Amino acid sequence: MPRARSSRLVLGWMAILSIALVAGRLESSARIASAAAGGPRAPATPDATAAPALDPAIYHHVAQVIWLVSDIDRVVNYWQRLGVHNIHRDGVVNFPSLTYRGKPDPARAKQVSANLDGLEIKWIQPVRGGKFWHDGLRQHGDGIRVLGYAVRSPQEFDDQIKYFSSKDVGVVVQDGWQGQAGRGRVAYLDTAVQGGGHTLALIDDPNTQSHAATGAENEYPVTKITHFAWVVNDVRKVDAYYTGLGFKPFSRIDHNISLDRIYRGQPGTYEMWLGWDRTGDAPFEWVQQITGPDVYVEYGNKHGEGFHHLGVNVTDMDEAIKLMTTRGAPPSQAAAWNTEKGKGRAVYLDTEPYGGVTLELIYDPH
Prior knowledge:
The structure is a single chain. Helices cover 27% and strands 36% of the residues. It has helices at residues 2-36, 72-82, 131-140, 154-166, 235-244, 295-303, 317-326, and strands spanning 64-68, 87-95, 99-100, 103-104, 107-116, 119-128, 143-150, 171-179, 182-189, 199-204, 227-231, 252-256, 259-263, 266-267, 271-277, 284-291, 306-313, 331-339, 342-349, 358-363. The longest helix has 35 residues, at 2-36.
């Protein structure tokens, strides 16, 4: 009898263990099936150690240029004559939250805003404070010093600042303001010295529509900027710098000897290295002068490395030259190139004395 009871106890425990094992397998199978069918699962834990990354989509479109000038009325009135009419004169604007390299730098400045088909121009004439603006005018004269890119959220703004910090690129200027739709921020990054005079900026502004310029329609051909260009000392060093920051290498670097070269009414002999960045919705051109004289030498002697010209497309070059000459912008330099679809032409207008920026007319048979 004791042996019989012992045997029954052993058999009972074995049965219980078998049931438990079967139940465990069934539960595990049910979890696997649920996951395969897209059923509920435990939320993933964020990877706090993930390295910040460059988001190329942010840098596809230039949203804003900061154009520093010493006489804002003279410059804006001139560009208005050229056909920029979608303008809002903001008067004297206070920037109480402005910082320079992490230190308070409150400023007052005269400001005029314009819009050219999604590109906001901000002409700024500093009145008091604003070390970046004052130093830019003192060292380089009038000109476009900053190209800004709009982020889609405050988190993107913070992530991109963190990314550039990981590449040893700090913030030179930062500002914040409270608008109707929320708090806005802007940060100028410390890219100018190694990046060919180009200061890259990030803009987090939920109030964009509330303060967009609302003037009259712009006149042809200054209706849309289709090209941005800099004069630099070494195009390959600039290419290597931006590639090191995570941007795509220039699509090519050409030794350019254009056709039909004209410089200030005389046959031109100029040559240059041209670096092309075509990753955005408007090409970037980086010009390293080889032989002169030309408008690039003029610019370098006056301003150093930096932003040289804005480009606009035209449908008839000869008519566009006549039109812009009557508005006060005669040609200063011209060149051409041959393509399978015809001869392309580029003509620089003599606008540099009015703001330090040249306007280029482009006829591209493509």
